[in-house]
Design goal:
By secondary structure, this protein is of the alpha/beta class. The protein is built from nine helices and ten strands. It has one domain (4-187): 2-enoyl-CoA Hydratase, Chain A, domain 1 (Alpha-Beta Complex), CATH 3.90.226.10. The radius of gyration is 19 Å and the shape is globular.
């Protein structure tokens, strides 16, 4: 996972998209590796995650157009499935899919100089998953971000309700870690229950979110040991021994 750095700070795990020379653009490999890293986090005893980008220029510039990812894989509550809290720490540009990741994280810290941008209407293409924004901030503000495509400062994002706290320049990860350590000292069962209630019952899922969730479920079946066992049993003309894995 050379483009994803994972480190532990006590009971907090910090995930860093480490492609500063590409403004931390999300390639196909980054999306897969980030999803796998979060699966390991979810199965561990770690309690809170912080998600950030390397360097000061960008959290992420969005999808790498030279190596297009299945972006849903690294979107919290879609490809990243955990009831543990996820805090997004943003400095510099947060573009396209990066804005979706920030919006679908449970909490978000940003600097004043952070710039949130969703320019797809100017490019003529969208995956539609940005519609999730309208379930998380006021309708007119979500439409401003999606339709006008104007860059939104960290301060403006805070006023919109996209960001929880403004951090001093270069201190976004430090502030997010402080928030994460506070959460790590709380009852994980309560945090997980509340997060599940909100994500499963209070937030309306867009068609693209529902499609991505379905794709994730089908991928689990396609990549399962049971499928390989079933195919082998068919070839060998025997009864399969399924394990549910």
């Amino acid at each position: 996972m050379s483009d994803i750095d994972v480190r532990q700070e006590g009971r907090v795990t910090v995930f860093t998209i480490n492609r500063p020379e590409k403004l931390n653009a999300i390639s196909s490999g980054v999306a897969v590796d980030l999803q796998k890293a979060f699966e390991e986090f979810d199965a561990s005893d770690q309690r809170v995650a912080v998600l950030c980008g390397a360097g000061e220029k960008a959290f992420t510039s969005g999808a790498d157009v030279t190596d297009l990812p299945e972006l849903w894989r690294c979107v919290p509550a879609v490809g990243i499935r955990t009831n543990k809290p996820i805090i997004c720490a943003v400095d510099g540009w947060c573009v396209g899919g990066g804005l979706v990741m920030a919006a679908t994280s449970d909490l978000c810290v940003a600097t004043e100089r952070a710039k949130f941008s969703y320019p797809e209407a100017k490019l003529g293409l969208t995956g539609g998953i940005i519609a999730a924004l309208a379930a998380r901030i006021p309708h007119k503000m979500a439409m401003e971000v999606m339709l006008l495509g104007r860059p939104v400062s960290g301060r403006r994002a805070y006023e919109m309700g996209l960001v929880n706290e403004i951090a001093p320049e270069g201190k976004h990860v430090e502030v997010a870690l402080g928030m994460a350590q506070e959460l790590a000292g709380m009852a994980p069962l309560v945090l997980g229950t509340l997060k599940a209630m909100v994500n499963d019952h209070m937030l309306v899922k867009s068609p693209s979110e529902q499609m991505a969730l379905t794709q994730a479920a089908l991928n689990t079946v396609r990549n399962s040991a049971d499928l390989q066992e079933g195919l082998a049993a068919y070839r060998e003309k025997r009864s399969p021994n399924f394990t549910g894995k």
